[in-house]
Amino acid sequence: MSDLITLTDRGLYCEAGDFFVDAWKPVHRSFVTHGHGDHAHIGMGEYWCSAASKDILNWRLGVQNIHTLDYGEQRRFGDVLVSLHPAGHILGSAQIRVEREGEVWVFTGDFKREPDPTCAPFEVVPCDVFICEATFAFPVYSWPAIEQEISRVLQWRELCESEGKAAILYAYSLGKAQRILAELNGKLDRPVLLHGAMERGVDVYRRANIALAPTELVMSLPGDTSFAGRLVLAPPSAQDSAWTRRFRSFEQAQASGWMQLRGNRRRRNLQRGFVISDHADWNALIETIRESGAHRVIATHGNTDALIPYLERELGVQAERLRTAYGDDEELTANAENVA
Ligand SMILES: [Zn+2]
């Protein structure tokens, strides 16, 4: 049988069901796995996504023509049955399962296996062909427990307070920031301060009834406010910008999987790096591929130089890559936030 999902110049396409997945150019119908800028684009005739993604696509794209499926709900398109399953990446993130005559393909979109109070946990979906991301597909990437990184954030804030400094933490405004706020809930005496670009996304998560630490907008505070010891969340694009001047004395840190490599922190002129990622690390990636039971694995984005030979040698699966337009949402979309 022909491949159920193929790569086109507009995105991944399922001809048997006549729909795209995470199309990056306008098409008549696209499923969107989640709201990050490299997966959700404007200009689709019809959007299909998980129920929890709808508010996010509204916010990010300003579109209304959105159809939703609950996780696990099956819908027929042409010759295929389609369902969405939690990817554990951010609120509303979904894997898409496509079935034709008993053959099952799964596309993960971005995913992670670690606990995250802001979204439904990743579900292993058995399949024949597994299309997955490979953002951090090197053995060097091995995430510490989130609790450990959150206590490091709290210690850093205390240190900043003792030195009369603000503690500015850069984190992507969809997913990462909210996960950090959820983990900090109940652990701070004062509200976390937010850069203006963080406000909408935090509101979207609160509307979805996700408990987050109390927040306050930096811009709502009087000019003579002391920022000593205040934890501030801002998008990576705000680093070293004019916006930081109001804090006078401050330290800067970033929360990202890339912070696992010390050189990245040094190069980016950050005092601290916290290893908090929305993606699977190497072990989680391999384990998830194993658990899927797939005999064929297609990696869509990231560097697959280590992954593909490993899968062929150690798991005995057929492995290949597709060159999609998906990139690293932990960094890539920072430019879009410069304007906010
Ligand atoms: Zn993403």
TrEMBL record:
Molecular function, one GO term: ligase activity
Keyword Nuclease: yes
SUPFAM superfamilies: Metallo-hydrolase/oxidoreductase
UniProt superkingdom: Bacteria
Keyword field: Exonuclease, Hydrolase, Ligase, Nuclease
The enzyme's E.C. designation: 3.1.-.-
Keyword Glycoprotein: no
Enzyme class, first EC level, given as a word: hydrolase
InterPro entries associated with the record: MBL, RibonucZ/Hydroxyglut_hydro, Xnuc_lig_assoc
NCBIfam families: Xnuc_lig_assoc
PANTHER family in UniProt: BLL1145 PROTEIN, CLEAVAGE AND POLYADENYLATION SPECIFICITY FACTOR FAMILY MEMBER
Protein name: Ligase-associated DNA damage response exonuclease
Species this protein is from: Diaphorobacter aerolatus
